[in-house]
């Protein structure tokens, strides 16, 4: 939990000796709280005070990295319950479960390798494989492991193993990467903790409900395993929401360190639609890893998009790259519409142009991700900037006409844009995107 | 270590909405953040209303046409079909009144509403065409025509709330108040509406919806903030139920329309489109909506299963 300047001040000697370089202890305390000064600068601060501040500086939810040599994934270190308070930082890891008894291991690996989709400039994909030791046999498990290593060396792994001796053998093989070990239960917690510690891998602790998991976390802790993942084995959406909310709340608001760990959710369900919904709940409500039973492309697209949306920064508007985009198959006679690069504006306008079935050029101008009116008010969507953008875009050479459609909200720019863009005629479009289909159809009709 | 549940303290309870004449539907009434059964009461499950339109839709994509094209030439047939699919409420959108559509007259819309009310006993939500000026003409007439049927009328916006609020009040209906993705605008509109003596307990906030991938995160967070302001920070004007008009936004997206041959990496269209609606809807339930307006029956069934699982 963050510690305030006043709380730090109370722990200082309050002599105002100035040895720290600040005029008063209070001023120094405030700087320490903001992270702009180090407590070590105070020669009088006791070890106890330093320990307390160090504790306060440790994230309430532990973060760590796992994965292979070249593909490292960080999970944990979340700081808020609601994304508008700051943001969610380390996106949920999606993992496909593969049983070592499956006959078509190669097929599954290929599916994961070929899962990537580009969306708004980001490459999204299934991040990891959860390899389950269904056979409970060490040899079979290691054979499959070899297959995966050969085919997809860089793919991060989570190993679902209930027998400690199988786990030890598998980890011996994976010394160059850092997989997560899953399968610590009340029956094997001591041995599994020892193995996780020996190979320095994160350990997933599984038991029914928060209270029981807490006991196992205590044991793993006492052995010295630092990087843990919690699995409370919820049976329903209700339990999943409750357990995840309480774990996040307890660690962030109550400072309960023993619950300050990332959470894993096994979303596997018999029905693919329902599995997608459960996985969505887990992404929205605090799971750091979600295990899936299958990854058809439609499911991936839904979950990738959800994850991308929810882990975006609420303080930074989503932006689209400045460019002239084609909507449909526009030609030299097609209309050209200019607007700002606020992602919402882009999506709405593009969607409505598509609805109109009129192919068009969509000129998206970099306005730092502001909407039309805000960008205009901030001077970023001005007549001279629009004119400069259109000139430099090279669109003039692609067109047979010189008519630029501007958003209805900036109708007042019409004259000024025409002054700055000699030869061009400016057409005032609609205020709301929803009016675009009718507007465009009329516009095209009037040209014929 | 013994674990004691870290509970939140709440100051506000969401009013309960009851609508419909013979058959009634309920939502709202909860005293904690969505589905936090461990610290509050939830007298009603969230409600899903099946959307129908007053005329053959111009922009329903293939996946919806497959389901509804045999009934969509008549709103009564359409509503009855939804009833066979398990609808507990109907949301009638008067799209034909939009100036860019047929620009049909308020009286025509009122006739259609009367017909539906006389033949269907499901609770009815009556929505304009989202054209602010035209809705101000249409909704008062429709409100009057459905007097005594205890409907939900929407949507009142900043530019037209006065006439719509007055008519909803005279007609004895509940009211959807829509503002554009902003906590303060939502609050402001509710203040204006209650200043006309419309009861706060009969207002439903529409914070403006969006679809997964298309501004979803804004809506999601605005809803969470409205809930927190209303229930935890004690802001009375924001302590009312919320609606997510999901279908209207989802079925415009490319993800619900593009064929597999156009974009092979997006996979099967049917599942993709249905789940685009279901996941958008489930997410907004988690961020605070109690009323959903949806289109595809399979998406609705998936969301119903989710609600059942949350209430298990």
UniProtKB/TrEMBL annotation, chain A:
<feature type="binding site">
    <location>
        <position position="20"/>
    </location>
    <ligand>
        <name>[4Fe-4S] cluster</name>
    </ligand>
</feature>
<feature type="binding site">
    <location>
        <position position="25"/>
    </location>
    <ligand>
        <name>[4Fe-4S] cluster</name>
    </ligand>
</feature>
<keyword id="KW-0489">Methyltransferase</keyword>
<keyword id="KW-0411">Iron-sulfur</keyword>
<feature type="domain" description="4Fe-4S">
    <location>
        <begin position="1"/>
        <end position="59"/>
    </location>
</feature>
<feature type="binding site">
    <location>
        <position position="339"/>
    </location>
    <ligand>
        <name>5-methoxybenzimidazolylcob(I)amide</name>
    </ligand>
</feature>
<dbReference type="InterPro" id="IPR016218">
    <property type="entry name" value="AcylCoA_decarb/synth_gsu"/>
</dbReference>
<dbReference type="GO" id="GO:0005506">
    <property type="term" value="F:iron ion binding"/>
</dbReference>
<protein>
    <submittedName>
        <fullName>Acetyl-CoA decarbonylase/synthase complex gamma subunit</fullName>
        <ecNumber>2.1.1.-</ecNumber>
    </submittedName>
</protein>
<keyword id="KW-0479">Metal-binding</keyword>
<dbReference type="GO" id="GO:0046356">
    <property type="term" value="P:acetyl-CoA catabolic process"/>
</dbReference>
<dbReference type="InterPro" id="IPR051069">
    <property type="entry name" value="ACDS_complex_subunit"/>
</dbReference>
<dbReference type="Pfam" id="PF03599">
    <property type="entry name" value="CdhD"/>
</dbReference>
<dbReference type="Pfam" id="PF04060">
    <property type="entry name" value="FeS"/>
</dbReference>
<dbReference type="InterPro" id="IPR007202">
    <property type="entry name" value="4Fe-4S_dom"/>
</dbReference>
<dbReference type="GO" id="GO:0032259">
    <property type="term" value="P:methylation"/>
</dbReference>
<dbReference type="GO" id="GO:0051539">
    <property type="term" value="F:4 iron, 4 sulfur cluster binding"/>
</dbReference>
<keyword id="KW-0004">4Fe-4S</keyword>
<dbReference type="GO" id="GO:0008168">
    <property type="term" value="F:methyltransferase activity"/>
</dbReference>
<feature type="binding site">
    <location>
        <position position="345"/>
    </location>
    <ligand>
        <name>5-methoxybenzimidazolylcob(I)amide</name>
    </ligand>
</feature>
<feature type="binding site">
    <location>
        <begin position="369"/>
        <end position="372"/>
    </location>
    <ligand>
        <name>5-methoxybenzimidazolylcob(I)amide</name>
    </ligand>
</feature>
<feature type="binding site">
    <location>
        <position position="42"/>
    </location>
    <ligand>
        <name>[4Fe-4S] cluster</name>
    </ligand>
</feature>
From TrEMBL, chain B:
<dbReference type="InterPro" id="IPR051069">
    <property type="entry name" value="ACDS_complex_subunit"/>
</dbReference>
<feature type="domain" description="CO dehydrogenase/acetyl-CoA synthase delta subunit TIM barrel">
    <location>
        <begin position="16"/>
        <end position="295"/>
    </location>
</feature>
<dbReference type="Pfam" id="PF03599">
    <property type="entry name" value="CdhD"/>
</dbReference>
<dbReference type="InterPro" id="IPR016041">
    <property type="entry name" value="Ac-CoA_synth_d_su_TIM-brl"/>
</dbReference>
<protein>
    <submittedName>
        <fullName>Corrinoid/iron-sulfur protein, small subunit</fullName>
    </submittedName>
</protein>
<dbReference type="InterPro" id="IPR011005">
    <property type="entry name" value="Dihydropteroate_synth-like_sf"/>
</dbReference>
């Amino acid at each position: 939990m963050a510690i305030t300047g006043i709380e730090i001040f109370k722990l200082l000697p309050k002599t105002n000796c100035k040895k720290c370089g600040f005029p008063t202890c209070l001023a120094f305390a405030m700087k320490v709280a903001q992270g702009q000064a180090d407590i070590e600068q105070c020669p009088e601060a006791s070890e106890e005070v330093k320990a307390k501040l160090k504790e306060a500086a440790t994230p309430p939810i532990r973060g760590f990295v796992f994965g292979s040599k070249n593909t490292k994934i960080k999970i944990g270190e979340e700081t808020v319950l609601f994304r508008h308070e700051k943001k969610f930082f380390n996106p949920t890891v999606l993992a496909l479960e593969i049983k070592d008894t499956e006959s078509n291991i190669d097929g599954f690996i290929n599916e994961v390798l070929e899962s990537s989709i580009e969306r708004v400039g980001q490459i999204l994909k299934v991040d990891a494989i959860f390899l389950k030791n269904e056979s409970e046999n060490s040899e079979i498990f290691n054979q499959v492991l070899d297959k995966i290593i050969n085919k997809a060396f860089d793919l991060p792994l989570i190993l679902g193993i209930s027998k400690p001796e199988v786990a030890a053998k598998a980890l011996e093989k994976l010394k160059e990467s850092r997989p997560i070990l899953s399968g610590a239960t009340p029956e094997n917690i001591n041995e599994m903790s020892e193995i996780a510690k020996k190979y320095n891998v994160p350990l997933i602790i599984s038991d029914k409900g928060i209270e029981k998991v807490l006991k196992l976390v205590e044991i793993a802790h006492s052995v010295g395993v630092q990087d843990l993942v919690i699995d409370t084995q919820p049976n329903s959406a209700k339990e999943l929401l409750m357990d995840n909310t309480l774990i996040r709340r307890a660690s962030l608001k109550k400072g309960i360190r023993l619950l300050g760990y990332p959470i894993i959710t096994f979303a596997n369900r018999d029905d693919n639609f329902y599995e997608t919904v459960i996985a969505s709940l887990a992404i929205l409500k605090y799971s750091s890893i979600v295990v899936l039973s299958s990854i058809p492309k439609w499911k991936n697209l839904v979950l990738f998009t959800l994850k991308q949306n929810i882990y975006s920064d609420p303080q930074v508007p989503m932006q689209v790259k400045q460019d002239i985009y084609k909507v449909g198959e526009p030609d030299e006679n097609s209309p050209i519409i200019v607007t700002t690069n606020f992602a919402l504006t882009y999506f709405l306008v593009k969607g409505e142009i598509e609805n109109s079935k009129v192919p068009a050029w969509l000129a998206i101008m970099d306005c730092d991700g502001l909407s039309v009116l805000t960008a205009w008010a901030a001077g970023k969507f001005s007549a001279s900037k629009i004119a400069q953008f259109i000139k430099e875009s090279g669109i003039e050479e692609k067109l047979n006409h010189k008519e630029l459609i501007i958003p209805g909200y900036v109708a007042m720019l019409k004259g000024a844009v025409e002054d700055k863009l000699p030869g061009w005629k400016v057409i005032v479009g609609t205020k709301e995107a929803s009016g675009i289909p009718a507007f465009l159809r009329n516009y095209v009709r009037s040209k014929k | 270590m013994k674990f004691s549940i870290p509970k939140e303290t709440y100051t506000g309870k969401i009013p309960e909405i009851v609508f419909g004449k013979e058959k009634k539907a309920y939502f709202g009434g909860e005293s904690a953040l969505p589905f936090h059964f461990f610290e509050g009461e939830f007298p009603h499950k969230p409600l899903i209303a099946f959307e129908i339109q007053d005329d053959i839709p111009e922009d329903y994509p293939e996946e919806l046409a497959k389901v509804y094209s045999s009934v969509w030439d008549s709103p009564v047939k359409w509503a009855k079909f939804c009833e066979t699919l398990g609808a507990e409420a109907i949301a009638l959108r008067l799209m034909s009144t939009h100036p860019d559509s047929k620009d049909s007259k308020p009286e025509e819309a009122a006739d259609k509403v009367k017909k539906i009310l006389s033949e269907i006993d499901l609770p009815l939500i009556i929505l304009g065409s989202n054209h602010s000026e035209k809705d101000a003409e249409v909704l008062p007439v429709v409100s009057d025509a459905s007097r005594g049927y205890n409907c939900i009328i929407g949507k009142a916006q900043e530019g037209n709330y006065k006439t719509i609020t007055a008519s909803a009040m005279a007609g004895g209906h509940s009211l959807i108040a829509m503002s554009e993705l902003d906590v303060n605008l939502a609050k402001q509109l509710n203040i204006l509406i209650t200043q006309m003596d419309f009861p706060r307990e009969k207002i439903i906030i529409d914070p403006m919806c969006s679809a997964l991938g298309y501004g979803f995160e804004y809506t999601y967070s605005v809803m969470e903030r409205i809930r927190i302001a209303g229930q935890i920070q004690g802001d009375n004007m924001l302590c009312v139920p919320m609606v997510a008009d999901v279908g209207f936004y989802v079925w415009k997206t490319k993800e619900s329309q593009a064929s597999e041959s156009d974009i092979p990496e997006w996979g099967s269209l049917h599942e993709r489109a249905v789940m685009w609606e279901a996941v958008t809807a489930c997410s907004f339930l988690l961020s605070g909506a109690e009323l959903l307006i949806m289109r595809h029956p399979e998406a609705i069934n998936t969301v119903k299963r989710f609600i059942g699982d949350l209430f298990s």
